[in-house]
Recover the amino acids of this structure.
DNA sequence: AAACCATTCATACTAAAGTACCAAAAAGCT
DNA sequence: AGCTTTTTGGTACTTTAGTATGAATGGTTT
């Protein structure tokens, strides 16, 4: 909402500035009309592209993660790290090597994660974590 | 690439048309300069927003599935069905019940899928399938 | 200091996943 | 009809995943 107001304000200000420029070129002869029109074109193309970026970012938003929800579910930092690696498709042994801890410890973390995510399997945990935006899609 | 060429062509044509309009208003007096500038502004804002839409759609694309790639990898219809259920987090037994076939058959399909997707585990298969847009994110 | 939590690790076990190999219907193609 | 691929299923086996339980360590809170 704030973004929309900002964009429209910028639009109105740009219009006013450009009309002033139009008047100016009107007074000082019509030799620079093309230049003014070019500036108008570039500026408004820029505004269009700016709105573009804003929208494109809002579309990507579901890709974002909700760390608050992670803590709400009582998932610890280490457990969260393990969750990320599970989602990448690594085995317990591989995760252990990556985080420099034993496979046994990974099993403990995974077991805790399954309880906290209310999942029966690691594949289900991945699905649930993505639905809850705990991990990027 | 084709889109980019199209957009730039549209830009150049618009510029030429607007310069012609500029000349016209120059001949018939300067009373309509503001109108010309307004048209330029609206047209280029529209172009910017058009590029917006194109980009926004390409961002949403990863949500789409590429059935051609599924066939390219030699994944059969039934195997693909199993892949979808794996990604939902179901166990082999659960998939068997859902598709009304034995767990043994699911194991066969999964084993074939892992070879075709070049994955070691079903979790990795999910990750790879999503990267290749075989299944929706 | 005592209590608490996160992290680590181990053992022993059960369950699920995955491999290998085979085989037989069923469906599709030429 | 003959061939090929798909789909189905089984057995036997290995590997990985997951559970249950207990325990040690270090950091934080009360």
């Amino acid at each position: 909402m704030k973004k929309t107001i900002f964009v429209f304000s910028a639009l109105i200000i740009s219009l006013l500035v450009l009309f002033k420029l139009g008047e100016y070129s009107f007074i000082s002869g019509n030799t620079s009309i093309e230049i003014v029109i070019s500036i108008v074109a570039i500026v408004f193309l820029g505004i269009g592209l700016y709105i573009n970026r804003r929208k494109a970012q809002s579309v990507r938003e579901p890709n974002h993660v909700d760390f608050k929800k992670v803590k709400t579910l009582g998932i610890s930092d280490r457990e969260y790290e393990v969750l990320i690696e599970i989602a990448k498709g690594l085995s317990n042994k591989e995760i252990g090597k990556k985080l420099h801890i034993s496979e046994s410890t990974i099993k403990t973390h995974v077991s805790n994660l399954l309880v906290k995510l209310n999942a029966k399997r690691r594949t289900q945990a991945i699905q649930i974590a993505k639905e809850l935006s705990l991990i990027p899609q």
